[in-house]
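User: Let's play a game. I give you a shape written as tokens, and you guess the letters that built it. Ready? Here's round one.
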């Protein structure tokens, strides 16, 4: 699926998440999938030896380092979204990091992963990461990433 379709699906699910924890959890998964599809597309376009089979955060780390020469300002939220996704699918363990050598503390594993607020936060985070990468790379931001800017959710800890 295309990143735009996945982000649109995440947005629709987040809007219907009030009183429906399943929709909230699915919104988180769809927002994460939109970012996965984006990193695969961008990485494949920008890096000849891009490893599509690598884990999600290392792909983002590699793409940002090679194309931008730095990580995104939204990197902590990217790590947090991965932790939220992991919690939704039942992963137990330490949160994954963009850079395993990072001296900063890892994101806290959220407890409220199936709330409407977390769903809205996940959608906004996905859109923000996509917008920030395109802006930093001096690429045109896709119109579908500009359309989702009204959410003010948070990923509760």
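Assistant: Ready! My guess for every position:
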């Amino acid at each position: 699926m295309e990143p735009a379709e996945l982000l649109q699906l995440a947005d629709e699910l987040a809007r219907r998440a009030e009183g429906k924890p399943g929709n909230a959890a699915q919104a988180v998964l769809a927002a994460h999938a939109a970012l996965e599809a984006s990193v695969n597309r961008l990485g494949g376009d920008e890096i000849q030896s891009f490893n599509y089979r690598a884990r999600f955060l290392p792909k983002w780390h590699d793409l940002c380092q090679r194309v931008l020469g730095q990580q995104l300002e939204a990197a902590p939220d990217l790590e947090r979204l991965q932790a939220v996704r992991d919690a939704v699918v039942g992963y137990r363990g330490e949160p994954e990091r963009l850079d395993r050598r990072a001296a900063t503390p890892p994101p806290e594993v959220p407890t409220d992963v199936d709330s409407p607020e977390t769903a809205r936060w996940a959608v906004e985070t996905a859109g923000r990461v996509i917008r920030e990468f395109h802006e930093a790379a001096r690429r045109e931001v896709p119109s579908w990433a500009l359309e989702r800017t009204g959410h003010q959710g948070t990923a509760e800890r």
